Amino acid sequence: MNSSKSDLPSRLMLSLEPWRNAAHWRIAFSGGLDSTVLLHLLADLARHHSLPALSAIHIHHGLQAAADAWPQHCQSACDALGVPLQVVRVAVQPGASLERAAREARYAAFTSLTEAGDVLLTGQHRDDQAETLLFRLMRGAGVRGLSAMPAQRPLGQGTLLRPLLDVTRAELETYALAHQLSWIEDPSNEDRQFSRNYLRHQVLPRLTERWPQAQASMARSAAHLREAQGLLDELAQIDLAQAATPSEFHWLGLPSLALAPLATLSAARQRNALSHWLEPLTRLPDTDHWSGWTSLCDAANDASPVWRLADGQLHRSAGRIWWLSGDWLRVPAVSAEWRDPSTALRLPNNGRVMFSGQTPVGPLQIRYRQGGEMMHLAERGHRDLKRLLNERAVPAFVRGRLPLLFGGEKLLAVANLPGLDGHGQGGWKLHWQPTDEDQGLR
């Protein structure tokens, strides 16, 4: 935009109008130019308008010695404006990309602090948007990645807003100088070994020298790609609605889809639908890794293929695909005697079991399938457990962790499977709650 600094407050106010009824506005305050201007703008607007409660959050990564002085600088800036500040220290996990690790630590903290009805405001601007588009283009990103940073998205229990995405860094600098603001210059921002800094200092200046409107054009392209991604998301929802049929094993509490409706789609629509479904569950696979999906679909009917992804596994079993993570990927430990059947028994890495109805007489023990187990059924005599599980089409990944109730060496019940889960005359049933975790979000 070519607007002057004088209308920056009114432009910000206009973009934040839909969020005037939020419970709380929190500013992600690094102390740098962008967040310093955003903090000053919002504090000034709060003096003239009725706005939600305003506060700031400073994330201290502790990655360089200079950063130790930044919390005090941020505190002084907030005190001068009458804005409460919360300083949060995070541990950045070592890895190949320090930039990415720091960002993940920062947003993990923001996510945990953003409560219901809260809005977290960050200071990214149009120059940042152009950098993001170029950076992702160099990494071979698809439509979702090239749509760059959205102006808003869910975060924690609230919403993340980027109200300055249509504002240039030059406009922010003009505002800061006009209001005599002081801000932190992060020394790492000059380090050209970081990809974004290389783009900022080496690439974008050359582009804008040749094409003065380059950043505005890139922001416009990102907006077009966001619109295209919106259409792809709508198509994914249509395709997933066909596959989101209920499973008779709904009590597993696992995200799952029927495979047959997906298999009728073109390969591109399969990837689109599955990406949409997987996005809240795991970091999405890159292009080369999608061969794992093809292998899973093409495996023999009697196979139980697994596609391993960054944050869990996709299993194919019983005509469906299932998302497994957390405790589902840990081997359940053999539990001890169930000494008090009147209370639930917690199973290491495998949830808990409990009885309904009359509690059977002990001694009792929960075990897991080893192979060769037999079970006596009133009308069918002794039957092999493997055959009983086959008859009920129990998914393969469940079979080794289904709690089996033994009285001595006699198999008395298999949790949660109708007809096998209790004793009709005894008036009791064995119930299994597979996990206490939320399998729906990563």
UniProtKB/TrEMBL annotation:
SUPFAM superfamilies noted in UniProt: Adenine nucleotide alpha hydrolases-like, MesJ substrate recognition domain-like, PheT/TilS domain
Lysidine-tRNA(Ile) synthetase C-terminal domain boundaries: 364-432
Residues that coordinate or bind ATP: 30-35
Keyword Nucleus listed: no
EC number: 6.3.4.19
Subcellular location: Cytoplasm
Keyword annotations from UniProtKB, A to Z: ATP-binding, Cytoplasm, Ligase, Nucleotide-binding, tRNA processing
Coiled-coil segments: none
GO molecular function terms noted in the UniProt entry: tRNA(Ile)-lysidine synthase activity
Domain notes: The N-terminal region contains the highly conserved SGGXDS motif, predicted to be a P-loop motif involved in ATP binding.
Stated role: Ligates lysine onto the cytidine present at position 34 of the AUA codon-specific tRNA(Ile) that contains the anticodon CAU, in an ATP-dependent manner. Cytidine is converted to lysidine, thus changing the amino acid specificity of the tRNA from methionine to isoleucine.
Family label: Belongs to the tRNA(Ile)-lysidine synthase family.
Protein name: tRNA(Ile)-lysidine synthase
Gene this protein is translated from: tilS
